[in-house]
Amino acid sequence: MRQPPARVTHEAISNPARIRSTAYATSRSRPSFQRPTRRARHKTRQHITQLVKDTSDKLKQASEADHRVEVSATKKIADAKLAKDFQAVLKEFQKAQRLAVEREAAYAPFITQAGLPQSYNSSEVNNGADKLAEQRTQLLESRRQELVFLDNEIVFNEAIIEERDQGIQEIQHQITEVNEIFKDLAVLVHDQGAMIDDIDSHIENAVVATSQAKGQLSKAAKTQKSNSSLICLLLVIFGVVLLIVIIVLAA
Fold it and tell me: What is the C-alpha to C-alpha distance for residues 92 and 227, in angstroms, rounded to an integer?
């Protein structure tokens, strides 16, 4: 279902501003492996990609309407400017996407030493016979906890790396989609540029025709004025001749 031209134009104007704002925020943000943050960024990327698609569709609708319906040259020029401005916004968004991929790929989780259980030092072992068995048990338990912690940390980091790789694949897929939209938009801008050139040519021809028409009118006015002066002169001469004839006849 096609939307009214006014709504199409409004969305084509407002969407690029939101896309530019998100591209700027993306270029300044740092990778994070906290799940709430990653989910929020995933949702934002999906939203902004959908905005790109919607805006491209709106501009195509406007361009089709400009070719199909009789509209003013002013609207055609305005629609062409919107498409060109959106093309510049897409370039910014593409740059932000590439930067996001580079940062995600360069950032990796690590095993923190702060959370590791502290094992017992050999100097802490009491040499007393009554404490030896207990200390051995505590030492073994400490080692076991350390191994469990390391194992859990490795599993967690592997899951995070998998999520990171999925995020990179998602961004790369969105980059491919935006690149296709950018190519279509380039064709649209080129077509609209040709249409604007045609409008400019018509305007220039109209200006030339108007100038020529003014010249013809000025020439006609001068000719008419000259003819009027000639008629007046002839009337004066005719009047003088008539007066002379009357005087001669009266004599």
Answer: 69
- What gap in Å lies between CA 248 and CA 142, rounded to an integer? 153
Pair 93, 48: CB distance under 8 Å: yes
175 near 94, Cβ under 8 Å? yes
Mean per-residue pLDDT of the chain:
71
Record the tokens describing residue 41, joined without a space: 């960024």
Top-confidence residue, 47 or 213: 47
pTM over 0.70? The answer is no
Give per-residue pLDDT as tens, 38-79: 677 778 878 888 888 888 888 888 877 777 767 777 777 787
Q: Can you tell me the distance from the alpha carbon of 101 to that of 94, in angstroms, rounded to the nearest whole number?
A: 11
Cα–Cα distance for residue pair 240/235, rounded to 1 Å: 9
Q: Which CATH number fits domain 5-111+167-193: 1.20.58.70, 3.30.70.20, 3.40.50.1240, 1.10.260.40?
A: 1.20.58.70
